[in-house]
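User: Run a structure prediction on this.
Assistant: Running it now.
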Amino acid sequence: MNAIQTRASVRQYTDEPITDAEVEAILRAAMAAPSAGNQQPWEFWVTRDAAKRAELAATSPYATPCGRAPLVLTFVQRRDLRWPSMVQQDMGACVENALLQIADMGLGAVWMGIYPEADRMEAVRAALGLPESVEPFALVAVGHPAVSVEAKGPSRYDETRVHRM
């Protein structure tokens, strides 16, 4: 899968919008992630409104790409779960699936962690008016890259981190 090797964090975008079909493809990939006991703890807030994206950009010192992207996906985790201790693994797989789909489509994105930082979680909750039944997990700014992401750095493979028995 080429997207694994070519995916990069993109923080600058063109003004070209993300279509509804592209959003659906991204969310289908996200929801295809594995989860503990198939609990599927995820829900998604899709934000295109410029004012709301600006509010999201102010929720963390690292969230400024939200104000520049034409689309922000907020990944939230439900609280009514059978295996709550596994939620972070489930949600991480969900976000990574979305990022790989985004890269495969030739779009750009950056993952901005929100959970477990209480101040960031509350700021996102307030910005989107989230119900108490969910907790913000991550923001993903999505857009058409303003610069080429083809020039990827060296491989991250490090043989010294592999231990064979």
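Helices lie at 2-6, 20-31, 50-57, 65-68, 87-104, 118-128.
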